[in-house]
Amino acid sequence: MDGGCRQQYLDALGIVSWVRRGDKGGGADAGADEASLETPPAAANPAPAATETPSPAPVSAWEALEAAVAGCQACELHRSRTHTVFGVGDRNARLMIIGEAPGAEEDRQGEPFVGRAGQLLNAMLRAIGLERGQVFIANILKCRPPGNRNPAPDEVAACAHFLRQQVALVRPQVILAVGGVAAHNLLQTDDSVGRLRQRVHAYGENRIPLLVTYHPAYLLRRPEEKAKAWQDLQQLHGLLHTD
Ligand code: URA
Description:
The protein is 39% helix and 10% strand.
């Protein structure tokens, strides 16, 4: 988020100051610190008169973003969803996994990758020593396209700013795009996953290293491709352990 845009966002939330999160190596100008409302020092904040209403609770950028997703009506998908699916996991994760869109089970539970594909994703992560709770998992879309159809371009466009803000807040060291829809939208390409995998791409203005692998739902249908996914996971493991 650029400075002007960030300031507008903070102003809209009534956020008056910044708290810099513990340094993860992103550098002083990483530009995605978590914002929170700090209590001003006592001298600048005299006790309210008895008749004054108490000020509202502090709102963090994460809380504001979650609320914005939960109330979003920017595309037609809000009409058919049961739950929005915000994303789950460690908000300081080194690895962010990005999938396509919620399926039926995710729509029911409000959490990404909880169906069969999710179980395979969990196993894939465990294969490189990671538990689901140690990564942050999100999707290109926050609402389920009916009948599990592919996301439509207008739906992706309406939703993209949520994911951009999530990436800016998490500041992952590496992004793993699972499946063609995630890869195509994050990299603005229509190359096949087969051509995109095994290369280190760069995402966004901070050029976050991004790898592409097969979607776990595809691997459930084509288990013979799991060997390639394993190569991709090993590459990911290597990238996560290069410091
Ligand atoms: N497939 C995805 O791409 N995301 C989910 O959350 C579930 C299935």
